[in-house]
Design a protein that fits this description.
Blueprint lengths: L1 H45 L5 H25 L11 H14 L7 H19 L3 H12 L10 H31 L1 H14 L4 H36 L1
Length: 239
């Protein structure tokens, strides 16, 4: 179970780091492009006040721009994302935490709730690459009075049987979660980019370059729409 928890934690952390990198490098540019498209649609609609399709297109473009802008603003003030790569020591610590603290290793309701909180803290520390915090969580648990137990063999046998059942159930949950992550669009995109990188292509940079070309084209269109009324007025005055 500890190995499967580690695999799932790695997968979550790697996908999270990739998503932040994608949003930081590509998503913010898409927000800029969507804003320009919204301005173009709104300018076109302003010249056709009676055209329902133009008005609807402008509203949809603005809604899309506001949505991507909201997502981009969350990334704007965040530090530049880094790729996730856990050290062997981090992996060892996480395994130890999962072996000792995992909530499915106890039948006591209160202890299970306490362990769930600790495991959530451990997952957060692992995904953040915080080795000292993982050590702190493990050491604090090992020193807690709840780890000291002493009862008869009959009760212990029942607890072990129940733990085995709980662990089997948790393993099935982890496998289902991992399969869902592996089937996700984000994982498929990450896999394609990594495969391309192995062949010497930086697909993420190619995506950025493509979006920047679209931004330049959108700016040109917007500028031409801004100049059109002035040109028309100049022609009328010349007549």
């Amino acid at each position: 179970m500890a190995e499967r928890e580690l695999r799932a934690a790695n997968l979550r952390a790697e996908l999270g780091a990739f998503e932040r990198r994608y949003l930081h490098e590509v998503g913010m540019r898409y927000a800029q492009l969507d804003e320009l498209k919204a301005q173009i649609a709104e300018r076109a609609a302003s010249g056709q006040p009676g055209a329902d399709r133009a008005q609807q297109a402008a509203r949809e473009a603005r809604a899309r721009a506001d949505e991507t802008k909201s997502a981009a603003q969350e990334e704007e003030n965040a530090p530049a994302p880094k790729s996730f790569k856990a050290s062997p020591e981090m992996k060892r610590l996480y395994r130890e935490v999962a072996k000792r603290i995992h909530p499915d290793l106890t039948s006591d309701r209160d202890e299970r709730a306490r362990r769930q909180l600790l495991m959530a803290e451990a997952n957060k520390a692992y995904e953040g690459g915080d080795e000292s915090q993982l050590n702190k969580i493990l050491n604090a648990y090992e020193a807690s009075p709840e780890t000291v137990q002493g009862e008869g063999p009959g009760a212990e046998l029942i607890r072990v049987i129940r733990r085995i059942s709980q662990v089997r159930g948790r393993i099935a949950e982890i496998e289902a979660e991992a399969e869902e992550l592996l089937r996700s669009d984000l994982y498929q995109l990450k896999s394609r980019l990594e495969e391309a990188e192995r062949h010497g292509r930086d697909v993420l940079k190619e995506m950025v370059d493509k979006v920047e070309q679209q931004i330049a084209q959108a700016k040109s269109r917007l500028e031409s729409k801004q100049d059109a009324p002035a040109m028309l007025q100049g022609r009328l005055e010349a007549r």
